[in-house]
Amino acid sequence: MRKTIQQINEKKAKGEKITMLTAYDYPLAALIDQCGIDMILVGDSLANVVLGLPSTKDVDMEDMLRHTKAVDRAVKDAMLVGDMPYSAYQGDTQGAVANAERFIREAGCQAVKIEWFENCLDVAGRIIQAGIPLMGHVGLTPQTADKLGGFKVQGKDAATAKRIIEQAKSLEKVGCFSIVLECIPDKVAAKISQELKIPTIGIGAGADCDGQVLVTHDLLGLVTGFHPKFAKRYGDLSRVIKEAVSAYRDEVVNGRFPDKDHSFIITDEEFKKL
Hints:
Blueprint: H1 5-14, E1 18-22, H2 26-34, E2 39-42, H3 46-49, H4 61-74, E3 79-83, H5 86-89, H6 96-105, E4 111-113, H7 120-129, E5 134-139, H8 158-174, E6 178-182, H9 186-195, E7 200-203, E8 211-214, H10 216-219, H11 237-253, H12 268-272
Parallel strand pairs: 1-2, 1-8, 2-3, 3-4, 4-5, 5-6, 6-7, 7-8
């Protein structure tokens, strides 16, 4: 049975930390779910870490739904959250509710997530009024990072920190069940977490958030190139994979694979009949 919003909220009330990771396909989602992670987000980071696209804005509803359906087939226990792509609610504010409903109806999500933008409260309100649980996202918002001066920490001065705090409070007031705080100073995140009744999920926002989320490909060391400061690497699967693939290549080239243990046989008697 998948975790519910009530169970996630109860964790905050009890002072228990909430865990969240991203997934984009069946096998990885199944492994994450088996480890007892509370929430799985099918993130629009799909664009970067799976599809090789330069921006999260480059994925659309069909991309997201296809991968979310795969994750849905794997997840038994974690709460499943679908990340609304830019085009689904910022590029098409009038169609936002219908697009959010598709995540629930077609892809098996229990909730959707949107990032803060100019018309965020209006869109958030309409999604929530339609009966769809909504997670907010403030601080660094990757879909509109170009308007924030790029991918950098937000809220480092009092004025911008106050604005982020106000955004978080307004999202709680409109009815969001949780809020992601991305790339903001730890003291600012702690203040938001203390003042909000709903859970905060941090990513690059310090230890005092009610929970934490990471992009799983960062955690596993599957992403090469730029590595965010906040993305702790718990494994180095890129090295393991390259070693395995190199060993396979060498054995094939040198005639050591496949060997008898990995081949099928026909009896000499049957072969003679050919």
